[in-house]
Amino acid sequence: GAVVSQHPSRVICKSGTSVKIECRSLDFQATTMFWYRQFPKQSLMLMATSNEGSKATYEQGVEKDKFLINHASLTLSTLTVTSAHPEDSSFYICSARVAGSYEQYFGPGTRLTVT
Amino acid sequence: AQSVTQPDIHITVSEGASLELRCNYSYGATPYLFWYVQSPGQGLQLLLKYFSGDTLVQGIKGFEAEFKRSQSSFNLRKPSVHWSDAAEYFCAVGVTSGGYNKLIFGAGTRLAVHP
Fold this sequence. Notes:
The structure holds two protein chains of two kinds. Chain A is mainly beta. Chain A has strands at residues 4-7, 10-13, 19-25, 32-38, 44-51, 57-58, 67-73, 76-81, 90-97, 105-106, 110-114. In chain A, strands 2, 4, 5, 6, 9, 10 and 11 form a seven-stranded mixed β-sheet that branches. In chain A, strands 1-3-8-7 form a four-stranded antiparallel β-sheet, with no helix packed on it. Helices cover 0% and strands 57% of the residues of chain B.
């Protein structure tokens, strides 16, 4: 149980285009989903917290207009990187948790490469 | 400020040797503590967690961790390391900030295992 999937696992896009990453909780309802960014050989940096049916809460320094997050249902959250640039290339990981819990279940990650 | 410190960036052990990965946290309230493991290019897998009760916590893959409040530590241990344990290990503390429960991660410890 507690499986989280991400799609796609890898994506390459051209500079200036937008790319959408999906995060799904497959066997539980996730009231909250989190989006992280991880640079090579570094830790996870929390980008935003997304609650179903409400606006995401972004961490300081994260551009909300560039990283659009939608959490339309209890099993799906999407991250859209708008007008991507090479510096947006990174490993993006989502996680999900149920209400009232600290425990997060992580997706396998999405490798984004912007050329 | 809330933080997690993993003093060892990189550790190398021989297969069959014992292992201890250090983790220290800074958090004013009762901590919820986690250890995650990440294989290259993958998401995070929960090894074990501490919420309350017995301070020695057993996890998957033969790992255990001990919570020591007096030392603000939550060190991860394994009596005999296997080659497949080579990975990145992250310690995390669950905190409540701005009304949200979220995880703060340490920088990670990369474990290499020699045959």
